[in-house]
Amino acid sequence: MNNELNSKSKAINQFLDSLKKQLDLLDDENFGDKFQLALETMMIIQKLKNDLIDKYGMPNLIKYNPNMFIKAKQIEETYDNTIRKFGLEISRLEKEISSLNGQRKIVNYIR
Q1: With contact defined as beta carbons under 8 Å apart, do 50 and 106 qualify?
Q2: What is the pLDDT of residues 79-93, one digit of tens each?
Q3: Which residues, other chains included, contact 107 with Cβ-Cβ below 8 Å and sequence gap of 6+?
Q4: Is 8 in contact with 66 (CB distance < 8 Å)?
Q5: Any idea what DSSP says for residue 25?
Q6: DSSP 3-state assignment of 93?
Q7: Which single residue of 24, 58, 75, 104 has CA 20 to 30 Å from 38?
C-alpha cells in the first residue's frame, strides 16, 4: 500500500484512542462540552475512514489494519452505553420533576 494509507490509518487510531478517553471522561458536569467534542472527533474519523474505503476498498482496509475496526467496535459499545446511561438519568429526572410538580399542585390545592 502507500504512505497515505499508513498515515491516515495511524491518524484514525490516534483519534479512536482520543475518542475512547473523551467518552470515558463524560459526566453530568461536562456532558455538553465533552460530548460535542466526541461527536466532532467521530466525524473526523468517519471522513478519514471513508476516504480510505473509497481509495482502497473495505476488504483491503480490514486486512491492513484489523485492530482499527476492533477499536471502533469497542468505542461504539462504549458510546451506546454512555447514551443509555445518560438517557436513564434523564428519565429518572423527568419522573422526579413530575412527582415534585404533582406534590406542588397538591400543596396549592390544600391552601
Answers
A1: no
A2: 899 889 888 988 999
A3: none
A4: no
A5: T
A6: helix
A7: 58
